[in-house]
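Possible race condition, two jobs.
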Amino acid sequence: MRIDIHTHAFHPKIAAKAVAHLDQSYDVHCQGDGTVEHLLACQRAAGVDRCVVLCAATTPAQVIPANNYARELQRAHPEIIGFGTLHPAYARWEEELHNMERDGLRGIKLHPDFQGFRLDDPRLLPMFEAAQGRFIFEIHIGSSQPAAQAPSCPLKLAAIARAFPGLTLIAAHFGGYLMWDLAAEALAGFDNVWFDTSSTSPFTPPGLLRRLLDAHPLERFLFGSDWPLYDPAEEQQRLQRVGGLSDNALERILTNAAQLPGLL
């Protein structure tokens, strides 16, 4: 089964506004319109069977609406695996973990930069402890800032992986957007860390992407398009071209997520 582990889709009322914000914030031209219908059409055209849609809350008050939307998408579309979210300032997080588990949400998305906290915020520690063996965490890693000042970085994720060996962690963007050399060094050898391939191949030269692919076992890489920023079919082609992947290696990356503990 081919799975895209890193996508976004927005409520139809805000999809156009959300895509415009992405265009402006990241200086890109999004390849999708942000709606779930277009997402699924692009995934079908790319030969992808299932996709994870990630939701994140910029404030504690948005945790429940974001998670409800993840539930709604997962119920309405069998091709979608919905990931909810938490926020370190959300007081009733234990209750929400229970509710997400009850309702079949398998994962949690954290985007420290977007959500306005640091990945080493001590308020996250009891959440990680409680989530071990229950949820997959997909976490944005990387920044243009130095590691010490960045809201997220490979070093902060490595500390979490060491402290919580039962926590299943996906490090987005090959483990560290704009911090790829640090990611290759700091995140090597962990049994509980996987890497998604999103938002990396457009920015890295072939030699760097090849080094990243060689830094970890092939089964640790999970295909991610970051739709609507990028089209999954084009991302497969670019990943293969820039990374020098064989057809067999690309197919393994596309299907590795099917073996990720707790996803299916």
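Job #2 (started ~2 s after job #1):
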Amino acid sequence: MFINHTFKATVKWEIKEGESTQNPRTFSRNHEVLIDNKAIPLQVSAAKTFRGDDSLYNPEDLLLSALTSCHMMSYLYVCAQNNIEVLSYTDNAEADLEVEASGSGSFKTVRLKPVVTIKDESQKDLAKSLHIKANQLCFIANSCNFPIVHNATIVVK
């Protein structure tokens, strides 16, 4: 049995005075993303490489953050199922985007590099292995068509 959930987002952009979409080098890429039932809209732009505002989030940032966040939540879930007490979790994830001369592109690899601190030394190997199960459960990872590599470090405190 499947349970379907619908998520909604609204994107708002408008041309600024003096700009024109006839010249793709001159118009602003800044826009607002409103997520259904969320009070604070996201201020988004293109990546600096693509003529965006580097101080704002970009779609590539948001994809990578969705992956690492979803993986962490899936990982904490499987740790709880296995009675592993996680004290902290930090991930410095990286994503490789390949852009063709035509302007088309895609992510080729994402590397998740979580550093997980657990309480019990005897659970260290299990804690490391659970990243595989977490990846299998992660909704975002299951929606991607590129490899997601896990280079986890488990620390005991």
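Helices lie at 59-81, 124-137.
Logs attached separately.
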